[in-house]
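Fig. S4 source data, part A: sequence.
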Amino acid sequence: MCGIVGLFLKNPSMRPKLGKHLRTMLIEMTERGPDSAGIAVYHRPAAGKSSKLTLFNADPKFPWREVGGQLGQALDTEVDFEVKANHAVMTVGADDEIVRDWLRQNHPEIRVMGYGRLMEVYKDMGLPAEVADRYGLAGMEGTHAIGHTRMATESAVTTEHSHPFTAASDMCLVHNGSLSNHNNMRKWLKKRGHIFETDNDSEVAARYFAQRLSEGASLKEALEAGLADLDGFYTFTMGTRDGFAVLRDAFACKPAVLAETDDWVAMASEYRSIANLPGADKAKVWAPAPSVVYTWEVKAAA
């Protein structure tokens, strides 16, 4: 049993309080996932052709600045770091694929939690409130964010096994449920070049959708393909650079609720995570139908 939350802000005036609202939503899911939690926030785009990576190392004294200096010298570019607990957000004047390859070869002790131009991912062990406050979630602005509280059933309780899982630039996935064919799907994805970091079935789902997107599928098409290829029970919420999406399996046995107003769209495993949002009493509220993909996209500024 896990808890999922997502918040998409349609009203730009609400963006300064994105993190504050998501923190409240996440904490309401504590009973569904007390062992670890994670968040993905879409905000503060990297300038120009720069990329932004969220990195993790368990050592609180890890020499991030030294790594940044090595990376900058190797790629002949500027590197900026913002350290938050055992995570660091690194902005680099290079493509994220090049940076990830350099890190893999030179610093395998660093785990890449998220990457792209817009997304930051923080995940850790502990109660949702502890994780949220450790990384300053309440102070984060942005357009949209997703979160997850975990009660481990399929794999170990570690920071690495926590959600969200990132498998493509500015794309991540949170998952409540379990997949029965994840071992065969993992083999299929490995043949297509995917490198796995955990034995978590949710990472398989994330990489599956990333594969479909890389083949040219739209977000809706990628999720619809999963209905045929991913066996099991699930509620998925996916974050992308442009918005977020929700999908339940054909049996829809994993709980989920959606709510929408003129100002926002919210998703949660239970309504109590939505109830405290401004205007929730006037929101349209419904249970996502089985096998139906729901998507929302950020509208470009006029």
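Fig. S4 source data, part B ends here. The chain has seven helices and 16 strands.
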